TrEMBL record:
<protein>
    <recommendedName>
        <fullName>Phosphomevalonate kinase</fullName>
        <ecNumber>2.7.4.2</ecNumber>
    </recommendedName>
</protein>
<dbReference type="GO" id="GO:0006695">
    <property type="term" value="P:cholesterol biosynthetic process"/>
</dbReference>
<keyword id="KW-0443">Lipid metabolism</keyword>
<dbReference type="GO" id="GO:0019287">
    <property type="term" value="P:isopentenyl diphosphate biosynthetic process, mevalonate pathway"/>
</dbReference>
<keyword id="KW-0752">Steroid biosynthesis</keyword>
<keyword id="KW-1207">Sterol metabolism</keyword>
<comment type="function">
    <text>Catalyzes the reversible ATP-dependent phosphorylation of mevalonate 5-phosphate to produce mevalonate diphosphate and ADP, a key step in the mevalonic acid mediated biosynthesis of isopentenyl diphosphate and other polyisoprenoid metabolites.</text>
</comment>
<dbReference type="GO" id="GO:0004631">
    <property type="term" value="F:phosphomevalonate kinase activity"/>
</dbReference>
<keyword id="KW-0152">Cholesterol biosynthesis</keyword>
<dbReference type="InterPro" id="IPR027417">
    <property type="entry name" value="P-loop_NTPase"/>
</dbReference>
<keyword id="KW-0067">ATP-binding</keyword>
<comment type="pathway">
    <text>Isoprenoid biosynthesis; isopentenyl diphosphate biosynthesis via mevalonate pathway; isopentenyl diphosphate from (R)-mevalonate: step 2/3.</text>
</comment>
<keyword id="KW-0444">Lipid biosynthesis</keyword>
<feature type="binding site">
    <location>
        <position position="141"/>
    </location>
    <ligand>
        <name>ATP</name>
    </ligand>
</feature>
<dbReference type="GO" id="GO:0005829">
    <property type="term" value="C:cytosol"/>
</dbReference>
<dbReference type="GO" id="GO:0005524">
    <property type="term" value="F:ATP binding"/>
</dbReference>
<keyword id="KW-0547">Nucleotide-binding</keyword>
Length: 201
């Protein structure tokens, strides 16, 4: 669709339940690698942008971690699903447009079609990562079960039959999180290095 100047060297596609810490963990990875090497891409970014515009909502609040987005979640899910049914790669293409860094961290895959899009566009580079937290931890972070959300495809689409390359337990201990992220950071650093050496040839 768009003219991509260069392909990424590594695409880490994250998924996980609400309040499992997808944003927290993917931001941490970007902090460690730096914004020159690594960008965080949110499939919900272009979705929220378009949804906010059509409904006259506050985009910054929709993008933030607070309660505001929860008011609109059920309707946003429905709205996004209509779009995805017409074109499953719609939000993936928009979210990756303009990404130039060698390492892409996609923070919020929710459906098989999201992962399949990355596997098919970037088969060599794509790795899938699941973030998991106990219900108790998620409750401490403000989660409570909502029918129509937590039992719907948006939250459960990747619960079964997906082979994850890594599963990260994010139940609060910073040193354990650091340790679990080491192999991912190592791979990302190698990918970034190979892209910079390719640039010099
Ligand atoms: N390991 C962690 N240590 C401290 N706070 C965390 C950790 N993981 C998540 N959080 C906090 O929990 C809340 C939910 O995390 P977030 O990354 O927004 O989850 P998700 O994107 O999966 O819904 C945020 O306020 C975040 O800062
Ligand atoms: C309509 C959504 O894109 C809303 C996503 O919002 P967030 O990505 O902010 O969600 P959490 O981080 O899990 O709390 C969900 C979808 O089905 O596409």
């Amino acid at each position: 669709m768009e003219d991509r100047i260069s392909e990424p060297e590594l695409v880490l596609v994250f998924s996980g339940k609400r309040k499992s810490g997808k944003d927290y963990v993917t931001d941490l990875i970007q902090d460690r690698l730096g914004p020159g090497l690594c960008c965080v891409l949110r499939l919900s970014g272009p979705l929220k942008q378009q949804y906010a515009q059509e409904h006259g909502l506050d985009l910054d609040q929709l993008l933030g971690p607070g309660q505001y987005k929860e008011r609109y979640r059920t309707d946003m899910i429905r709205w996004g699903e209509t779009r995805r049914h017409r074109d499953p790669g719609f939000f993936c293409r928009l979210a990756t447009r303009g990404a130039r860094q060698p390492v892409w961290v996609v923070s919020d895959a929710r459906r098989k079609s999201d992962l399949e899009w990355f596997w098919s566009e970037f088969p060599r580079q794509t790795r899938s990562v699941r973030v998991e937290s106990s219900e108790e931890t998620r409750k401490q972070r403000g989660w409570s079960f909502t029918a129509g959300v937590d039992d719907a495809e948006s939250e459960c689409g990747l619960d079964r039959d997906v082979k994850f390359d890594w599963i990260i337990r994010n139940d609060g201990d910073a040193s354990s999180l650091d340790e679990q992220l080491q192999p991912i950071l190592k791979l990302a650093q190698e990918a970034a290095t190979s892209s910079s050496s390719a640039d010099h040839h």
